[in-house]
Amino acid sequence: MARVNDEAAAALQEYADLFAMTGGDAFRVRSYQKAAKAIAGHPEDISGGDVRSVPGVGEAIAKKIEEFLSRGSFRQLDELRGRVPEGVRRMTRIPSLGPKKAIFLFTELGIDSPAALREAISAGRLSGVKGFGPRTEANLLKGIDQMEQAGRRVHIGIAMELAERVIASLSGEGVRRIAHAGSLRRMKDTIGDIDILAVGPASLMEEFRAMPYIAEVIAAGEKKTSVRTTGGVQVDLRLVPAESWGAAMQYFTGSKEHNVRIREMAVKKGWKLSEYGLFEGERVIASRTEEEIYAALGMPWIPPTMREDGGEVAAALKGELPEVVTLDDLKGDLHTHTDLTDGIASLEDMVAAAGRLGYAYYAITDHAPDLVMQRMTLDKALAQRDRVARLQTSYPGMRLLHGTELNIGPDGTVDWPVEVLEGFDVTVASVHSHFNQSRAEMTARFIAACENPQVHIIGHPTTRKLGKREPVDADWEEIFRCAARTGTALEIDSYPDRSDLPAELVRLARHHGVKFSIDSDSHAVPHLANQRYGVGIAQRAWLTTDDVINTWPLERLLAFLGRGDG
Ligand code: DGT
Ligand code: CA
Ligand code: CA
Ligand code: ZN
């Protein structure tokens, strides 16, 4: 994935925020935001070509980006950064506090950071200030807590891209092995710090400390160096002896609870297990590969995603580890968008990218009319269906499915009538508003959606956004029972800040007999690759191909969707 695009997009987005905060013209703010989105989603590296070829990037924005590419910032951004302190910018990331209010608090009351805002609220300095009633104050305090918690962990998308960048930057001559371990290898949806192991020369540590992405060296030793990156994430790099590679990977992959369980077994045999190997006294029993270590303890190799002390060791000892679903097993994607609604790539570009992934089927599911911002109409949907049919002739090996992402209203109804819905090959129905309904109302809402025969998949079910929005409150077991009974699949939305359903709920749902769809929810070409995160969730929940409808051959999938003869 094009890293420089993300950085340029982030700078432009920051500029848009600052521009809005300082009273800039709303139309121009929109155009910066749109260009930032387009640059982030652009499949080619913008440093290689002309940024003017990105849709939505005109001359003025192109100049800013070119300056950014040459020196890491641009004049107008520097100027606004000078006017708005860093702490005030962090205040805008408090959920429920917009840029306008943040700048108001700064200019009127001198509040210049989230911590200062918390103090001001506690000291009652905001009482009587227009627009800041007791309820708003309570929401702000909650938002500050949420932000601080989120600041300590990052979602897997950020961590994985950073780990790949670090590994690429260190993979020079003399480095014989380098890989990530820890919670990232176990594919947890949030990551505390990134653990990287390497076999290489001692000079690698020095090289690492000099990398441009490093903001602070926390600890520098011969065996381990810990740093904080410019993005605020901690990375631990460990040099390990070549002959201990397997033992080190096993140890530092964790989880701690899984390792405790494994070590107990070694102890029972009178052996010792450490990051250097499995030993009987001084004698090495196994150390080079993870496979040898697990084998010596009487088990097959356990996939990292299952190493959570959730029964995997007992299952492995009995030879009953399930064969969990892998990325290669996916035959298609059932939830994707185009520029007809809020995607940024055309239908043709999205389908071409799906074709390159070798999919057997691919669904286009733009939003239905309820989300008024998207300006969808039946005419547009039908015109898109014609385009899909024409495009199909160019993809003999990949079945294009014309679908839609429906909006589940507060009462559980969806935004097109039955006769329209029958015309789609596949429908995903999701909640996009009214997140604060009571548990009973929310449960009834999902159950109504599942009971609708024209709803095939419930999209991003909890609607959480990591670090931004809590999951909705609902009786999930009740909903899972209903989904199993009605043959409604639940989505594993692979977009990393959603990661929704989360693994614990997937595991619970599976016990009720629910089927799942691992979808990318792509809004741009590079997002298609996010499927790997959804597969991580599925593995953490022990799903096999039988549980995941988009690993099935086309015929079986169509039968499940009630579109069998199509
Ligand atoms: P995180 O960073 O909070 O997302 O989670 P992890 O699992 O990456 O935890 P971390 O970075 O503290 O340690 C990486 C792995 O190293 C951990 O999963 C297991 C192993 N490890 C670290 N400290 C200990 C320990 O004191 N005992 C054992 N058995 N294993 C440890
Ligand atoms: Ca870690
Ligand atoms: Ca660590
Ligand atoms: Zn959605």
From TrEMBL:
Catalytic activity from the UniProt record: 2'-deoxyribonucleotide-(2'-deoxyribose 5'-phosphate)-2'-deoxyribonucleotide-DNA = a 3'-end 2'-deoxyribonucleotide-(2,3-dehydro-2,3-deoxyribose 5'-phosphate)-DNA + a 5'-end 5'-phospho-2'-deoxyribonucleoside-DNA + H(+); DNA(n) + a 2'-deoxyribonucleoside 5'-triphosphate = DNA(n+1) + diphosphate; a 5'-end 2'-deoxyribose-2'-deoxyribonucleotide-DNA = (2E,4S)-4-hydroxypenten-2-al-5-phosphate + a 5'-end 5'-phospho-2'-deoxyribonucleoside-DNA + H(+)
GO BP term (any one): DNA repair
Span of domain Polymerase/histidinol phosphatase N-terminal: 332-410
Pfam family, one: HHH_5
GO molecular function: class I DNA-(apurinic or apyrimidinic site) endonuclease activity; DNA binding; DNA-directed DNA polymerase activity; exonuclease activity; phosphoric ester hydrolase activity; zinc ion binding
Chain ranges of the DNA-directed DNA polymerase X domain: 3-308
Keyword line: DNA damage, DNA repair, DNA replication, DNA synthesis, DNA-directed DNA polymerase, Exonuclease, Hydrolase, Methylation, Nuclease, Nucleotidyltransferase, Sodium, Transferase, Ubl conjugation
InterPro entries: DNA-dir_DNA_pol_X, DNA_pol_lamdba_lyase_dom_sf, DNA_Pol_thumb_sf, DNA_pol_X_beta-like, HHH_MUS81, Hlx-hairpin-Hlx_DNA-bd_motif, NT_sf, PHP_dom
Cofactor(s) the protein requires to work: Mg(2+)
SMART domains, alphabetized: HhH1, POLIIIAc, POLXc
One cellular-component annotation, GO: cytosol
EC number: 2.7.7.7, 4.2.99.18
Subcellular location: Cytoplasm
Domain Helix-hairpin-helix DNA-binding motif class: 49-68, 89-108, 124-143
Summary of the function given for this chain in its UniProt record: Repair polymerase that plays a key role in base-excision repair. During this process, the damaged base is excised by specific DNA glycosylases, the DNA backbone is nicked at the abasic site by an apurinic/apyrimidic (AP) endonuclease, and POLB removes 5'-deoxyribose-phosphate from the preincised AP site acting as a 5'-deoxyribose-phosphate lyase (5'-dRP lyase); through its DNA polymerase activity, it adds one nucleotide to the 3' end of the arising single-nucleotide gap.
Name this protein carries in UniProt: DNA polymerase beta
Organism ancestry: Bacteria, Bacillati, Actinomycetota, Actinomycetes, Streptosporangiales
